[in-house]
Write a structure and sequence with these properties.
The chain has about 325 residues and is mostly helical. About 65% of the residues lie in helices and about 0% in strands.
Length: about 325
């Protein structure tokens, strides 16, 4: 009679997971853990299963156990497992209404693997949720009355909101499904802002773009969706916004990486085309953005080609060292 080994049970659990039979996968992973309690990969796989069963507490507990085991072993080869455990713990914490703890997990994971697209996607989601909550809280405290929040129904979340990583297994261990994306009001608001800009808000009958004096996070993040024919006008717009507006928007959460990249595009455009009237604005805004929370992390998502272009443009156009404003 054959005796099941932890690896055999793990592989069987992976097969059930792939078929979305999460109860059976859970049983296999649990049996494997009973035979090999010091294997962090097994806890990572079972945590992913608990996430798909919406058992957030059990998922978090398994991630904590797995992270302790990784820490005890202190083996570099286990870094990918640590990243997966941190990401899965973040998802559990996010769904347990603990966004700040979840964001810390993602930040820790990004220090290990700063180019991981799935981590970036989760980071974006957490930051947007936090920004939306901060915005709504501000409205409530400023108006002692009920606040009407306009939430529009949409058919789907923008595809580029999530990771486009074709190798999803990089974040999900030997199993390919990290769990279904969860629809949130932050997603709705982000999509709504994009729709307003690209359909009805910008292209009015007179052809004059709409430039809000008090832009929102959603508005600024959606600028990257503008067609090429409208981008130049918005480059000038973002360089002309009062710095205090940016400070008020991003002082709690730091910059949105998508807006940061659009802003860098605007800087490249202005300097390449000798629009040096924006010189002081560019310098002031770069200094401001570098002082915002988590800039060192957000800057890792900046397009390296834009950074290289700005280094040359700063030297040749305005006789400045870009690094003095960026770091």
């Amino acid at each position: 009679m054959s005796i099941d080994s932890p690896n055999k049970l793990k592989l069987e659990g992976n097969e059930f997971f792939g078929r979305k039979d999460f109860e059976s996968a859970l049983s296999k992973y649990t049996k494997a853990i009973n035979l090999d309690e010091a294997n962090p990969i097994l806890y990572s796989n079972r945590a992913a299963t608990y996430l798909n069963l919406s058992n957030w507490k059990r998922a978090i507990d398994d991630c904590d156990t797995g992270l302790k085991l990784v820490g005890r072993k202190d083996i570099a080869a286990l870094s990918p497992v640590e990243v997966k455990l941190l990401c899965r713990k973040a998802i559990g914490l996010r769904n347990s209404d603990k966004p700040k703890e979840a964001l810390k997990c993602i930040n820790d994971a990004l220090l290990i693997d700063p180019t991981n697209k799935a981590l970036k996607s989760e980071w974006h989601l957490l930051v947007r949720n936090e920004q939306l909550a901060e915005s709504n809280f501000g409205q409530i405290t400023n108006n002692a009355h009920l606040v009407t929040v306009d939430i529009q129904e949409v058919d789907e979340i923008p595809k580029d909101f999530f990771s486009q990583n074709p190798n999803a297994e990089e974040i999900s261990s030997e199993i390919s499904n990290e769990g279904s994306p969860i629809r949130t009001e932050a997603h709705e608001e982000y999509h709504s802002a994009s729709e307003r800009m690209t359909v009805s808000g910008i292209d009015n009958h007179t052809g004059t773009p709409e430039y809000p004096s008090h832009p929102t996070v959603q508005f600024l993040s959606a600028l990257r969706l503008q067609p090429e024919t409208k981008r130049q006008s918005y480059y000038k717009y973002v360089l002309s916004v009062n710095p205090q507006q940016y400070r008020d928007i991003y002082k709690m959460t730091g910059l949105d990486p998508e807006f940061l990249n659009f802003f860098l595009e605007a800087c490249v455009y202005a300097l390449q085309n000798d629009h040096l009237q924006y010189k002081e604005s560019i310098l002031n805004l770069l200094s401001l953005f570098a002082s915002l929370p988590r800039f060192s992390l957000t800057s890792m998502f900046a397009d390296s080609s834009k950074i290289q272009s700005l280094k040359l443009l700063f030297k040749n156009k305005i006789n400045k060292n870009f690094g003095e404003f960026w770091n």
